[in-house]
Write a structure and sequence with these properties.
Shape: elongated
Bound molecules: zinc ion
Number of domains: 2
Largest sheet: 3 strands, antiparallel
Number of helices: 3
Strand content: 5-15%
Oligomer: single chain
Helix content: 25-40%
Number of strands: 5
Distance between the termini: 70 Å
Strand order of the largest sheet: 2-1-5
Length: 200
Amino acid sequence: MSPSTIPTPLDPISEWRAWQTFTIIYTILLNRQIRRRWLLEQKSMQDRPLRERFRPVIFLEPVPTLQKPNTNKEATSNPFNKSTMDKLRTKAALLRARVEKGKELASEIERRMVQYPPIRFPTHFCHTCVSDGERVEVLLTTCGHRVCRTCIQYGVDEDGVYECSICFVPTGFVARSPLVLVKDCPGEVAPILRKGEVAM
Ligand SMILES: [Zn+2]
Ligand SMILES: [Zn+2]
């Protein structure tokens, strides 16, 4: 008798464990990329006077665990519930995308650090469109990413909330380019935006 070519489907708990394992691996890989970018940012800022520094922010993602899933009917983590599994799959896919973007960002910084003629601030660019922070105003988000005004415009929803294009979560802004950086800086500077406030 030939073995069946159709794989036996996993039971819901094993499937939940498999996807949860993916999220664990991707979270560890993502944290590695975040740390790598943070070290590069530290390195390229260390010789700068304080007023020119755009302080890097680091937020590592909490690593999920393989704790026993809750199979109570009402539990939101019940793997027998279809929406729980859909959410878990989406989470794994987003984490994977963030790992890839993290690699691209760190590589872009490394490339800018060795570029000739040298760039003054190799880490200071828009993480979405890679516009240089010396040419355009770049803001630092609460999630630790950098984004230019143009990309903010494309990332706001109808309520004026900006969703980070790297983390896929709504975010606010903690700082903007030190003014000495922006060459064609307008005389008057808009206040730093808080979450949900995008004034152009
Ligand atoms: Zn941009
Ligand atoms: Zn972000």
